[in-house]
Every structure is written in structure tokens, then in C-alpha cells.
Amino acid sequence: xxxxxxxxxxxxxxxxxxxxxxxxxxxxxxxxxxxxxxxxxxxxxxxxxxxxxxxxxxxxxxxxxxxxxxxxxxxxxxxxxxxxxxxxxxxxxxxxxxxxxxxxxxxxxxxxxxxxxxxxxxxxxxxxxxxxxxxxxxxxxxxxxxxxxxxxxxxxxxxxxxxxxxxxxxxxxxxxxxxxxxxxxxxxxxxxxxxxxxxxxxxxxxxxxxxxxxxxxxxxxxxxxxxxxxxxxxxxxxxxxxxxxxxxxxxxxxxxxxxxxxxxxxxxxxxxxxxxxxxxxxxxxxxxxxxxxxxxxxxxxxxxxxxxxxxxxxxxxxxxxxxxxxxxxxxxxxxxxxxxxxxxxxxxxxxxxxxxxxxxxxxxxxxxxxxxxxxxxxxxxxxxxxxxxxxxxxxxxxxxxxxxxxxxxxxxxxxxxx
Length: 418
Description:
Helix content is 54%, strand content 11%. By secondary structure, it is of the alpha/beta class. The chain has two domains: 16-182 and 355-411, 3-Layer(aba) Sandwich (Glycerol-3-phosphate (1)-acyltransferase), CATH 3.40.1130.10; 186-347, no CATH class. The strands form two sheets. Strands 1, 2, 3, 4, 5, 6, 8 and 9 form an eight-stranded mixed β-sheet that branches. Strands 7-10 form a two-stranded antiparallel sheet.
């Protein structure tokens, strides 16, 4: 019997009966752990999607990726409404978690991003068969509802390959979604903070206003992580962080980056590319410097965590429960990982309160037209246009939801006034 290789690529083997059976399961997950009470997808947006994803076209869908698990279930909901046999990309660590998991996910038509695999060629064939292929071009969940991160080029590269192999219409299809709490979620957010405080052995913030408790949680975590990583103590009072928090966070982020650059050389400003470079270097050193790599892994996790708490998104006069919730989920995923309960929560991050999910689909990108206009530069242009279209649609959705979101915002204790 050959040994199971979790990094090996195996082509999907879609089982229609299982794919159809999983639709009500996905909807139950959305209604249950994800606490979705409604999915808001206007008829014009749905019509645009159906015009692009149908027999006779090759469609590559690229949704934003603000959450984990919720996004998977929404992917499934889209495929149920548009093309049940749509293929979906996923991390090989998930698809190949075990032999049983691999059989299950391949039968659900998931494509593992295993190194050196045939996923791209399979995707092109599947899209040309009219089923559609969905992949999140940001690559990983960002836990940022208002921002689209830099995109990876795979989606447009495959779309251009499909256009080169067939004369049928080829579309890159942007989709955005954003969740909004149905009512006031501050009380359940306080319960979430209590879980994190206990798990990280931090002082309890019970009794403080929830927004102040959140500010102290971030500040106390910053201080604790500095001590854990043997960094200088942040220049702030963790009980009264106020406008000192974001400057202290920026200083800690710079120190973590400098420590990694000392071992792995200059890192790109883009966090995703920087992480990729460090991980590659850690793999090369794993056998010769296991203790150093273990420390680097903790530094890299802190780099990713701190970069996610971006002042451009959170250094504002007022802060809403949605912004607090995404920061708490990011914090739990990064630092609260011990034990099977936390492992399960980070795999299926429970929403703290009922929500509505708002989906929008801007105009698809015509790949054939882009190639005709820009030739060899088409992939770069398509990727830039895709990012602009995703961010533009997300900005428009945020403006549409603003009256609803503003109702529950509170004064932000961490605002610097910059």
C-alpha cells in the first residue's frame, strides 16, 4: 500500500448525488453556526451571474474572501443557484487532510492547490465544459470586510488559457459580499472577548464598556506578544491605550519584520508575498535550525496578525460591531489554537449574533476583449481590473449599507485623530 501524501495532487471526482445532497447541509451551516438570517442578492446581480455562468461560456468566478467557512458555504450557495457542478479551489491542507477527507472533498469537486498539480489545466477544461470554476483570488481569508487584498494571478492566467483554447466567450466574474448584524451585537461580542481573555491569560475586562474592553484586549495582547517574542515593551499603558495603541502596534510590526528580514533578507511590503518568502526559507532551514524556525513561525504569525489590524480600517472616530467581530476572529485564529474546541472554532468560526449577508455582482470582465486590446499584457490588465471592480463594488455596497451600519457604532477608544 502506497503511503498517503498530503501534498500530492489528485483530480476531482465529482459525485452528483453528493454535491446535490450538500446544498441543504451548506444552507443549514449558514443558518446555524454562521447565523445568517437572509441572503440579499438583488435580481439584476443574479441575472448578470447567470448570463456569464452557463453552457456555452467559460466562467471563472472570483469572490472576495473576508471570512472562513462562511465564504465556503456562500460559494456552495452560488453554485447551487448557477451551476451545481461548478469546481471550487481550496488549500491542499484541507482537501488532503486525510485519505477520507480527500475522497469527500474530491467528490464535492474541490481542486487542491497542491504544488506541481494539474489543477490549472483541469480548471480550464472544466470551465470550457460550461460548469464554471470558483476561486478566491485573495488566496486566504482576510477578516477584512471593507478591503480587497492584493490578488494572486491564477484566476486571470487560467481565463487567458481558456480563451486561447476555444472561441467561446470567456468571463472573469467578480462577486463581493459583506455581512451586517441584524441588531445590536455588542453584548455577544463581550462574551467573545471573555473567551479570548481567558485563553490568553489576560486580565478580565468585565465591567468596562464593550468598546473599551476591546481596546484593552488589543493593547494587552500586544504587550503579551512582545514579551513572548522577546521584543521591547510597547510604549503604551495597556489599561489606558488610547491614541498610543496604533503607534505602538506600528513599532512592534516594524521590529517583527526586521527580525525576519535579518534571517531571510528583505521582504516585500505585501504581507502575502512576504509570508510566502519566509515560509519558503523556513522549509529550507527546518532540518538544520528547528529552534530558530519555531521562533520564526511565531514571528510570522505576529506579522500577519498585526498587519490585519490596519489603522486605515480601524483608526477611526467610531467603530462598529462588525469591525470588532472581524478583529476578534482574526485574533482567535492566530493565538487561541490549543485544544480541539478551539481547533473546531477556528475551522468553523461561529458568528456571535444574527446577520444578513449582502451579495453583489458587478459586470464580468470579457477576457477575449482584453486580449484583443492589450495582447500579452492582458493578464496584468485583467488582474488590475478585477481588483478595481471588486473594490469598487465593495465600496458601493458599504455606502448602501452605511445607514444600517452607523446605527450601532460607538466612539473608538483607539482613535488617534489622524
